[in-house]
Amino acid sequence: MKSLAAITAATLVLAASLLTTHAVRAQSAPAGSTSCTPVGDLSFVCGVVNVEDFLPVEGGRWLVGGSLQPGSAGLYLIDTAAKSFKPVILSIAAQPDPEYPCAAPDLKGLATHGLDVVPGPNGVSTVYAINHAGRDSVEVFRLNAGKGSAEWVGCVVMPSGVNPNSVAALPKGGFVVTKFMDNADKEAFQHILAGQINGVVYLWTPGKGFSEIPGTQLSGDNGIVVSHDGKWLFVNAYGTHEIYRVPLTGAGERSSVKVDFNPDNLRWAPDGKIFVTGQFVTPKNLNEPLAWATVLLDPKTLKVTPVVKEPGSKEFSGATTAVQVGSTLWFGTFRGDRIAYRTAP
What we know:
It is a single chain. This protein has 345 residues and is mostly beta strands. The chain has a single domain (4-343), classed as Neuraminidase, CATH 2.120.10. 2% of the residues lie in helices and 44% in strands. The chain is built from 1 helix and 25 strands. The protein has a 5-stranded mixed β-sheet, with no helix packed on it. A 4-stranded antiparallel β-sheet has the order 1-25-24-23, with no helix packed on it. The longest helix is centred in the middle third of the chain and has 6 residues, at 188-193. The radius of gyration is 18 Å and the shape is globular. The termini are far apart.
């Protein structure tokens, strides 16, 4: 594997979680960002690699995050009190879940992307993680955050050529997953920035497999969440700067709202609204520190309220996700050696 220092900007196929199966390359900390001291209103937990997405577990005691760099850490646990982290100790379950039948992966070579978490009994949560190393798939883990360990229990391999981005769990073991682009399209990201339709949301049901959800054919389907009543999904169209509300059944009207940035991940806020985080991307600024923003979306009215807007710096740029634990906002990014946090406005 190439060292991080040897991976140049020209090899990156990443901008707002842009990757392909054959070109997963993570970017090291931007040149000069050796200090972990705060910058402006942002403080950092340093030493993690390319944590594109994370979610609270155990009531926010921890955040479980992925790593887009193959071989760095399949999953991280971030201590929200101590502001520290540790890699999750991964193992293969003695009895994998028959609902997710597939061959076990190389646990030391995972490249994890979008996540979802379903709390369970006895402090054990089910983690669904997009993986791009070796296969494009949704890997399923049983995480015991208190013990700092997780067992791999199965996976679902994506349809051929599909580059997945985000996943949201459904009752009874199913999930929805976004297709960001086609792996065979060498100019896929340019096509997304031009607003071309190349994505969709898939519904996966145990025993039935994949089906496309009508009304979700968008430009770079990215972050996704499902309403608490299970009737609606919210999905980002990265290329056209839109967030769509679509009936999960596909039957009914869809609605949308536009933002002034490329929306990446969606995450529920404590007040029932949705954090939308993304970058200000153009074809010319992909290799520069990317400005980014987080807004709040009202799921009923689709009204958007600004939360944070940052210019991007050599220390931290291109934020992809935001979650709130107590009075603290946490931000992940697809690039660099850290995650950021600040007091919620």
